[in-house]
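Researcher: Structure prediction, please.
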Amino acid sequence: HGEIARQVDYIIANGWTSCLEFADSDCAYVQDKANIRFGNAASCGYYDNRYWTMWKLPMFGCTDPNQVLGEVDACKRAFPDCYLRLVAFDNIAQCQTIGFLVIR
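Model: Predicted structure follows.
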């Protein structure tokens, strides 16, 4: 958890909201069967395979990195064969600021 813990510290230090998402390994990466396409062209701001299932609710107001890491472990126990990513949102800019794969 060392590198992940440092990323979580960074998220919390910036006041961002952490959120965990998971997906079955068949849908975690862009593949033909996981794609949703609108015609033959992708547009600006359109991401294939962007939507994964959210684990619980975003961790609004969480200031303890150990809580976030605990939820990573709980999600992994509940869905041992899934990929898990951590994303963070900035409530001022109203956008996703970071996202990375935690467990593959």
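Model: Residues 24 and 82 are 5 Å apart (CA to CA).
Researcher: Thanks, that helps.
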